[in-house]
């Protein structure tokens, strides 16, 4: 690991100033520190966000839940409001990585990193959440731009994520046992505005599946999901699974999600 300096600001404003000057923000560190140890990343200055109280806390307000960017996965998994109002989100958080990752990793760090196989981006996109930053609010559909790429600007930090509470929601994933990342994950919600199906682990980044959404908006049944042909041409193929296998998993996991949602 290369030499670096560590700053620990107490406010978002101070953190933004440091980031604008070229410092690298440090949230849970589950990706950044590992890449630094491998010398794949060599920032000269880190900004530890852990002391910024503005970035913590989970609040239910009407039909929304707002989660501070520095909330740990365990915080989300164990929060009483999340478990009662949006159990699928609590379930997702409870199954991210392993115990150590859940104790240190943060929702803001995960969403900003936008790993193509991360769990949280599927919840944000699948629920139509809003990413709140130090500058603005960004709709989930406009936030995720591709492999490790988001709409965040260089001097912009995620401060919170606001989730609308759906009528029904389920997260299904098949875990890749070596890494604990999902080989494929499907986050499904049904609300007054319709059905959303977000897929992670299968492509160059998280994405919505229009065919499954159209079918389920017409008939919210596992049979309707099963009838949708999943195109494998743009899906990942690697040593863990072929594109065709991932396409089949998208179908199977969506069918399971619908069945669970219907009780």
From TrEMBL:
Gene Ontology MF terms in the entry: FAD binding; oxidoreductase activity
Superkingdom of the source species: Bacteria
Matching InterPro entries: CO_DH_flav_C, CO_DH_flav_C_dom_sf, Diverse_Substr_Oxidored, FAD-bd_PCMH, FAD-bd_PCMH-like_sf, FAD-bd_PCMH_sub1, FAD-bd_PCMH_sub2, Mopterin_DH_FAD-bd
UniProt keyword list: FAD, Flavoprotein, Oxidoreductase
Top class in the EC scheme: oxidoreductase
Entry EC number(s): 1.2.99.2
Pfam families given in the database record: FAD_binding_5
Entry-linked Gene3D superfamilies: 3.30.465.10, CO dehydrogenase flavoprotein, C-terminal domain (3.30.390.50), Uridine Diphospho-n-acetylenolpyruvylglucosamine Reductase, domain 2 (3.30.43.10)
Residue span, FAD-binding PCMH-type domain: 1-168
Name of protein: Carbon monoxide dehydrogenase medium chain
Natural source organism: Variovorax paradoxus
Record lineage: Bacteria, Pseudomonadati, Pseudomonadota, Betaproteobacteria, Burkholderiales
Gene name for this UniProt entry: cutM1
